Amino acid sequence: MENLIAIDIGQSFFQGSAAQNMTIGSLVSGLLSNAVFFAGFIMFILIIAGGFGIIMSAGNSNPEGAEKGKKVITAAVIGFVIVFSAYWIIKITEKLTGIPILNSGL
Known about the structure:
By secondary structure, the protein is mostly helical. The protein is built from 5 helices and no strands.
């Protein structure tokens, strides 16, 4: 006995209302809306890596390694502040002008 199931993936997955309304602008807007989350996640990983570098170099009496760990943490925090500030500048501009810049359109 042979059972075959055929599903038209194009009709099932790519013909919904979200797919019809998807444009490059809505894709970029969706990515920008989540930029703060991704920046926070990357900052978290870099702070852990920098802290690990500081701890490992302190055990070896390696001041260069500790300085490198501090630079990684500083760069992570500065990068997050830049992304966070840019996001809120866009949100303030949206409120002042009434133009939905980060509207995904979905």
